[in-house]
Design goal:
The chain is of the alpha+beta class and 185 residues long. It has a single domain, classed as Immunoglobulin-like, CATH 2.60.40. It has two helices and eleven strands.
């Protein structure tokens, strides 16, 4: 009889331990990168002549979900304008139309290092930045941070300029944060 009580006690303790472990739930994994909604981003810089006509001079850069670029460094022509096209992919499907449908909630900002490396940027697409004209100035190494904000107030004063240092005052959060490493020759 004593043995039976010990067996029941062990069985009951095992059952409680099993229930305790089963009731623990795993948390969803936290992705440690800025572009977690997108599995691929493509940026195309298409050279424009003096009249604004597209040329065959094209640079294409692909980014994975972690923001790693291929190629890591791209060469552009100094003091030239380019049409910049950005393509966003989720699960290998182009989703630019979703961003365009929510145009009021999305905007790219562009920051150059050195700051004088971009002399102008013009939005060609309802102030989103998936399609625009960028003019580069000077020679040498250029880093361009392309930052997509979601949920911002695009009418806010700090959301007007393509390179507004105070863009965060317009609200929203970052959807994409990538860097284009360029060399202007």
């Amino acid at each position: 009889m004593y043995f039976n009580k010990i067996s029941k006690g062990i069985l009951f303790s095992g059952l409680l331990a099993t229930l305790a472990l089963a009731s623990c739930k795993k948390e969803d994994p936290h992705h440690n990168h800025d572009n977690e909604e997108y599995d691929q981003i493509k940026v195309h810089l298409i050279g424009l002549d003096a009249a604004g006509t597209q040329s065959q001079d094209t640079v294409s850069i692909s980014y994975d979900a972690h923001g790693d670029a291929t190629p890591a460094l791209s060469t552009i022509q100094a003091n030239k304008s380019y049409r910049m096209l950005i393509e966003l992919y989720a699960h290998n499907e182009l989703i630019n139309n979703e961003i365009i449908a929510d145009a009021a909630e999305h905007k790219f900002f562009f920051f150059a290092t050195p700051s004088s490396a971009i002399s102008n940027y013009i939005y060609n697409d309802d102030n989103i930045g998936l399609d625009g004209k960028v003019t580069f100035s000077g020679l040498g190494a250029i880093k361009v941070q392309a930052l997509l904000r979601h949920g911002l107030d695009k009418s806010h004063a700090d959301a007007q300029a393509y390179n507004s240092a105070n863009y965060q005052n317009a609200g929203g959060s970052n959807d994409i944060n990538i860097t284009l490493d360029l060399k202007a020759e």
